[in-house]
Write the structure tokens for this entry.
Amino acid sequence: MTDRIAPRPTARRQGTYGVDAPYIPALYGAMGIGLLAWGIVWLTGHGLTSALGALVFGCLMLVSAGLYLYVTRRGKFVVWEGLLDGLALRGDEHVLDLGCGRGAVLLAAARRLPEGRVHGVDLWRGQDQSGNDPAVTRSNAQAEGVADRVELHTADMTQLPFQDGEFDVIISSLAIHNIPDAAGRTSAIEEAVRVLRPGGRLVVADIRHTRQYGADLQRLGMRDITRRGVGARMWWSGPWMPTTVVSAVKPS
Ligand SMILES: C[S@@+](CC[C@H](N)C(=O)[O-])C[C@H]1O[C@@H](n2cnc3c(N)ncnc32)[C@H](O)[C@@H]1O
């Protein structure tokens, strides 16, 4: 094993990565347009004062839709580049992405692993990401030039089809909160810890339940647990929906 660090990839993205939970920006957009239209009609009949609320909320909804689309199309990629840089990967690790979807984070990791492997686990739910399909992720891997080091698995992250201690690094982006019940989310964290090798690292970014992930990791004996916000680049529609990153190391 060497102590070299894989160079930070600078290439532009070549794949297409869809929109996370696409019904949310669609709803914001539709509500914004509806409120603005209603406000304009009301303005002509009743004057500005009584139409102001609808006009202001309509504009806010459209700004929220715009912010959401920025995060899903660009912000999360920038943030994850930083998180992956922070892992200072050597380039030969085995990495597992829980809920990889179309591969936004999976393939960013793969670009850093010329001699390693990335495994993506997913149930390919269209309501969680538009056009979610393993064929799309595979074609993105081809487009990014990393298909030789990518393996996809159709599996539930609460029951991972891997041996104990198989992975050097576990990552997960905006996926664990999609498990509807608390027991299921705890199972996902337990499974992540199980398949991580001693000394391996875990990085989870999510919009909800991150305090619970931290508590679960503590109970499971993980060390160096941190929990921090990643800032406005991952505010999903506004500061009321921020993203938090939990990281931890499995004791050797
Ligand atoms: C919002 S998408 C994020 C995808 C990707 N991580 C990204 O950041 O672009 C959440 C993903 O989690 C997957 N997912 C939801 N529940 C899952 C489960 N129990 N097991 C595996 N994947 C799951 C969905 O199918 C979806 O691809």
Summary: Confidence is low (pLDDT under 50) at residues 1-7. The longest strand covers residues 196-206. The two ends are 16 Å apart (CA to CA). Strands lie at 94-98, 117-122, 150-154, 167-173, 196-206, 223-229, 244-249.
